[in-house]
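Retry 2 of 3 after timeout on previous attempt. Resubmitting structure tokens to design endpoint.
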């Protein structure tokens, strides 16, 4: 994708905290949209106090695309005062192919406004998906992914084309604003498998602007058979421009057919992020990262995940730099052997001739 990684280091790589653990409604019932600016500032101070230098403006907390101009300017000031960079706006559960045509149109309009707001705030990426609002059963469950949610109609060519057209419209707006659009993988949508996600971005046909958010944590947590995580990343990482990182413990009892999953720290769950980051670098991934965690003190777990990812990046980037240096030295040696560079004894002879 179009991000440049030449200056990326383990410490400078943008890793933002998701705001999943901060509710969109205050204790008194006030929406965060309408809350005093001081509340926004307090949340961002809390993120910074956890050691983050970036944040993901997750729209389950605050919707920049629905803020009037003056409030959007106030948000910009709060972000600047916090000292935080913003990796992305993650706009979730706003499917542009919702089966309710009015809802789908409303979501498209909202996402276009979100792109405009991101540009106004200087945020480089907007992440969107095709997943829809949680069902009553999901809202009642301890972990919502243990209940089935809405799904896109498989094999429906008309609906697929509508997804392509509307996501391409978002991509064109993003391109005009100098932004990236990232499509989040999510079960039972047209972004619910590696093959489907790759096919969708290819049909959209804007590889410099529209890429994937290979959030395979959304898939490995399902209580049913899923694709191998390494196979999913191998297929999707070459198309990735943003990445929600989270992990889950996963178990399967063959005797009963039962599956069990719960959230895990990034270093402890099913997905081996040491291997995953190596695969990402091999694929040329240079986009920002976002660390997520459901349950408990999600911010503190996310902070530990951030540090874990930086430790891995430090080792993997250093290994690449060393390998590049060795390759460069080997190339220089070959040049001398071919007579294109000065040989040591030739240099000595030149010095002696000048005496």
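Retry 2 succeeded. Sequence:
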């Amino acid at each position: 994708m179009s991000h440049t990684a030449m200056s990326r280091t383990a410490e400078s790589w943008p890793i933002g905290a998701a705001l999943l653990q901060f509710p969109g409604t205050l204790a008194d019932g006030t929406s965060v949209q309408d809350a005093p600016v001081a509340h926004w500032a307090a949340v961002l101070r809390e993120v910074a106090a956890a050691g983050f230098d970036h944040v993901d403006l997750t729209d389950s907390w605050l919707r920049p695309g629905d803020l009037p101009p003056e409030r959007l300017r106030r948000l910009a000031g709060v972000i600047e005062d916090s000292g935080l960079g913003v990796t992305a706006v993650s706009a979730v559960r706003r499917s542009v192919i919702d089966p309710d045509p009015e809802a789908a149109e409303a979501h498209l309009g909202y996402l276009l406004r979100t792109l405009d707001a991101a540009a106004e705030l200087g945020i480089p990426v907007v992440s969107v998906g095709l997943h829809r609002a949680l069902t009553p059963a999901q809202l009642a469950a301890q972990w919502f992914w243990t209940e089935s949610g809405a799904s896109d109609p498989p094999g429906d060519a008309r609906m697929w084309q509508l997804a392509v057209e509307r996501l391409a419209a978002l991509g064109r707006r993003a391109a005009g604003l100098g932004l990236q659009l990232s499509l989040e993988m999510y079960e039972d949508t047209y972004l619910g498998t590696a093959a489907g996600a790759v096919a969708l971005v290819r049909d959209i046909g804007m590889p410099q602007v529209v890429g994937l958010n290979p959030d395979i944590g959304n898939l490995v947590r399902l209580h049913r058979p899923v694709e191998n995580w390494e196979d999913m990343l191998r297929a999707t990482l070459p198309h990735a421009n943003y990445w929600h990182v989270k992990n889950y413990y996963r178990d399967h009892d063959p005797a009963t057919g039962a599956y069990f999953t719960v959230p895990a720290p990034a270093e402890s769950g099913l997905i081996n992020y040491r291997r995953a980051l190596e695969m990402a670098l091999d694929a040329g991934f240079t986009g920002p990262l976002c660390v997520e965690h459901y349950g408990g003190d999600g911010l503190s777990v996310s902070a530990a995940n951030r540090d874990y990812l930086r430790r891995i990046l430090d080792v993997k980037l250093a290994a690449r730099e060393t390998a590049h240096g060795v390759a460069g030295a080997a190339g220089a040696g070959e040049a001398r052997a071919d007579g294109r560079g000065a040989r040591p004894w030739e240099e000595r002879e030149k010095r002696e001739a000048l005496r």
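Attempt log closed. The chain has a mean pLDDT of 92.
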